[in-house]
Amino acid sequence: MPVIHLKARLSLPRQTALSIGMVLKKIVIANFRNFSHAVFPFGESLTVIIGLNAKGKTNLLESIYFICHGSGFRESKEEELVTIGEKMLRVQARFRKADHHVDFQIVVKKNDHGFTKVFTINKTPKKYFSYSRETTRAVLFSPEQITLMIGPPESRREYFNKLISFYDPEYKKRLINYESALRKRNKLFEQIVDPEKLQEELVFWNEYLEEQATYITLKRKEYADFLNAHPTVDEKSFKIEYLADEFTKTRLKESFENERRYRRTLIGPQKDDFCIYAKEVKSLKNLHHFGSRSEQRLTIFWLKLNEINYYRLIFSQKPILLLDDIFSELDHHNKTLVLKLIGGYQTVMTTTETEVLEMIDNPYSIIRL
Ligand code: ATP
Ligand code: MG
Known about the structure:
The chain is of the alpha/beta class. The chain has two domains: about 5-135 and about 320-369, 3-Layer(aba) Sandwich (Rossmann fold), CATH 3.40.50.300; about 150-290, Glutathione S-transferase Yfyf (Class Pi), Chain A, domain 2 (Up-down Bundle). The chain is built from eleven helices and 15 strands. A hairpin with a 2-residue loop joins strand 5 and strand 6. Helix 5 crosses helix 6 (about 170-190). The radius of gyration is 22 Å and the shape is globular. Bound molecules: adenosine-5'-triphosphate and magnesium ion. The site of magnesium ion (MG) has 4 residues, from helix 2. Adenosine-5'-triphosphate (ATP) binds near residues 57, 58 and 84.
């Protein structure tokens, strides 16, 4: 599959002929978090994972996310996914694609230097990028995502970085380039005192960083534009403002003295932020500062709906939805809203409350942990 350039793709009309995409049939996990060995079958529409606290509900959901995306959604280090005391994990999944099956596998082996990760599809080893083009996308809903509303700018940048990188490997590459060049540029401020010598040494890095930053800024802006083109959920309207901290020659000139004083780079996309507003009759309300907790949850729901929309727009397929214990936080109206949405998608959700089952009209299967 070719590299996807968001701008070109965004101008495409919405596809009407959606294929269901891939359907998860079964997952087999070995030494993944608290599971030493387990096999779980999944329903084609809704599967509910029920269990008391700390039984492994979130871990099972994470194993699905892992087989789809090649990484977990909670770990700070990849090795943390491997059961404590073990050296290797394996996750295998069987998906149905139209009338045939496709088998995916990821093996992580810990070693003295870190770990290795091997991806295979139908037993053929693959590089991460070609593996990820063949799997489906999992869209995760979890209560912790409220950090996007109440957490620091870093959590929002991380969210958009992960999302855009999934579609655009060029973005991922430039982000890595930018971050490593930024560290080198900062080192120069620490090492060189003489302003003229410093200016001279900075020329190369300034150009290089500007080139990477321009691309990063453009892609972030394009995704914000996409969100603004799809502003509503449940009769509420949202707006996202992309607060780009541009890395330009003019701004570099202006900040040089301050950068020397603080001995580090003071401008650029590492300082970007995003601000989300509710569109009210006569004004915009900043939802990070003024939103009630339920308004903030609905805002996350808006972001998540658009993750689904975006995947559908680009791949003309439906993603799998993973709902981690979100019902305990929602009122009746919002519970109904979520249940209405998931009707059209393969969904796996976790809950500790069996009462939720009474609200579900469609057929579902249950995994008890
Ligand atoms: P809750 O209802 O509280 O959300 P849960 O069923 O979702 O609980 P999980 O978050 O899946 O529980 O965690 C289940 C158990 O797995 C926990 O006791 C956790 O400490 C443990 N665990 C997490 N990572 C590992 C690991 N790498 N090795 C072994 N156990 C782990
Ligand atoms: Mg959990």
